[in-house]
Amino acid sequence: MSDTEIYLHAEKIDKIYPGTKALDQVSFDVKRGKVNVLIGENGAGKSTLMRIIAGIEQPSAGKLYLQGREVTFPSTVEARANGIAIIHQELSLFPNLTVFQNLFMASEHTKNGLLDDAEHRRLAKGVLERLKYPIDPNTKVGDLRVGQQQMIEIARNLLIPNLKILIMDEPTSSLSESEVDTLFTIMRELTASGISIIYISHRLEELMRIGDFVTIFRDGKLVAEAAVKDVDVPWIVRHMLGKGKNYPKRSEQIDWSKRETVLEVKDLTLPKSGGGFLLNKVSFNLKKGEVLGFYGLLGAGRTEIFECIMGLRPLHSGTIIKDGQQLEIGTLSEMIGKGFAWLPEDRQRDGLVQTMNIEQNIALSNVGAYSTAAGLIDQAAEDRDVSDMITDVKIKVADKRLPILSLSGGNQQKCVFAKGALTHPTIMLLDEPSRGIDIGAKTEIFNLIYQYAEKGVSLIVVSSELEEIIAIADRIVVLSNGLKTAEFTGDDINQDNLVKASYLGHQHSKD
Questions:
Q1: 458-462 sheet: strands from edge to edge
Q2: Per-residue CA distances from 283 to 161, 427, 493 (Å)
Q3: According to the model, what pLDDT value does residue 243 have?
Q4: Which end of the chain has fewer CB atoms surrounding its CB within 10 Å, N or C?
Q5: DSSP secondary structure letter of residue 377
Q6: What distance in Å separates the CA atoms of residue 211 and residue 17, rounded to the nearest whole number?
Q7: What local confidence, expressed as pLDDT, does residue 508 receive?
Q8: Are residues 301 and 444 in the same domain?
Q9: Are strands 427-431 and 458-462 parallel, antiparallel or unpaired?
Q10: Cα dihedral 498/503/504/509 (nearest 10)
């Protein structure tokens, strides 16, 4: 490939942190006007390299060349001045500000020495229309769902006037299928204009669809690269893991009709502000030790079911029965006390406290159990229980007093799981438990789910990934537009059935 086709070259990059080498002599080319796909397990080094290219971190050794000239980016300011922008996996938005204020944060337009909010709103409306996402620019970002916030993050970077390289870290993790299609159309428009995209995702089929070139990282090293047209998914997985790996399945078939029912939900209904319903008379049951899956498109109502059960949606109606007794839905802490644990979709915003260390995060939901009569924390009991939980959940950590953000995404997710499990729940509600983590970490999360199901814990799992929900669930309920449209068991659990049922509610809503 000629030099003119390579926009940026990273030469023998090392990155050393105390006790670990995150990058080891990595040389990497960003091809001009192409989607450059990066794949690797959590901790493989791909995100570290991207942070160096984006000016967030500095290399321990090695050099960067932009269009053949050596460059250094002491901060993101210098990187953005050279047309390099990054969309992080974890959103960096201001929830108390509006959409247009977020879009133009640190790149404001002025008129007569004052902020030109009329221009901000006009430009915001234009970029959102380009994304086929007509959100009111005056909407507060904190009022948007995660998928909508992800589109705002993408829109913000599309507004950079001299954009040359756009780094996208898990940009579709919260998007619906139609939103992904729109994003891919925009990406092709960008590459056609000469913009290079570096794309990180754990959705392998998605990468095969949008990528031009693929680069694979393992243990801080670049281990393989090729044109996407010349490889397939098994090739990627083989190089990424060093071995083949499939999602685990439960070892035995169980007759669930003979198991006791631990939860019954009848006619669960949640009105939508402005009319209509987020949930419309949804009914289902859950058996002891069962993994019940919920599948549906974005906005189908999956997360809202969990929020109703956990006391976050007081306007809901319907009947919820646990162990034969009708439940009075109380506060979140009261529902934890009644045997529920909830793992939210957005682990950074709702599942973890970023200023706390690993031990404090795991112990947080069970802190009452360690409170003494004097109002102090029984540190010895907390230490013992958290250490046992770290072992049980297999969290890879050298010291539980390290910052929670020092862990990889997969290990952070295990901490959220451990926090819920520490309260000894009988029912666990898992909302997108594999979001933004690699295949290896997903397999570990799935094994954890099976491990707790074998102990008699009942689990409800929401997933947007067809292959994952099919692999993990004993039974699957499909939701669409707030309606329960189907329920599948056994051989009826397949992609065709789930996809068809996920669109039924949308058809009904138009009739």
A1: 340-343, 427-431, 458-462, 291-295, 475-480, 483-489
A2: 50, 17, 19
A3: 55
A4: C
A5: B
A6: 31
A7: 38
A8: yes
A9: parallel
A10: 160
Same domain? 414 vs 496? yes
Residues 6+ apart with CB under 8 A from 496: none
Q: Are 319 and 267 in contact (CB under 8 A)?
A: yes
Same domain, 381 and 412: yes
| pLDDT on residue 195 | 92
Same domain, residue pair 279 and 405: yes
Q: Which of 195, 211, 241 is the last residue of a domain?
A: 241
Structure tokens at 184: 């891919």
If we measure between CA atoms, which residue out of 315, 307, 406 comes closest to residue 352?
406
What the block records as the tokens of 38 is: 């990066």
DSSP per-residue letters across 105-133: TTS--EETTEE-HHHHHHHHHHHHHHTT-
> What is the predicted pLDDT for the residue at 248?
66
- Asked if 176 and 159 count as a contact pair (C-beta separation under 8 A), the reply is no
Tally DSSP H helices, then E strands, for the chain: 16, 22
What's the domain count of the chain?
2
Is the separation of the CB atoms in 156 and 101 below 8 Å? no
**Residue 255, in any domain of the structure:** no
pLDDT for the residue 253: 73
Domain match, 200 and 276 both: no
Task: Give buried/exposed letters for 23-58 (b at 16+ CB in 10 A, else e).
Answer: beebebbbbbebbbbbbbbbbbbbbbbbbbbbbbbe
Check residue 509 and give its pLDDT. 38
Give me the residues of the chain with pLDDT under 70, please.
Answer: 1-4, 18-19, 41-43, 89-90, 174, 241-248, 250-252, 274, 298, 373, 504-511
Are 347 and 411 members of one domain? yes
C-alpha distances in Å from residue 361, one per residue of 16, 62, 350, 358, 382? 27, 37, 12, 5, 11
Alpha carbon 511 to chain centroid, angstroms: 34
Structure confidence at residue 274 (pLDDT): 62
Separation between Cα atoms, residue 345 and residue 432, nearest integer Å? 5
Give residue for tokens 């112990």: 363
Residue range(s) defining the domain that contains residue 308: 260-510
User: 205 and 284 share a domain?
Assistant: no
The pLDDT, as a whole number, for residue 458 is 97
Query: Residue 242's pLDDT is what?
Result: 67
Give me the half-sphere count of Cα atoms (radius 13 Å) on the Cβ side of residue 242. Answer: 9
Q: What is the pLDDT of residue 70?
A: 95
CA distances from 66 to 6, 11, 81 (A): 9, 11, 12
| Res 14: pLDDT | 95
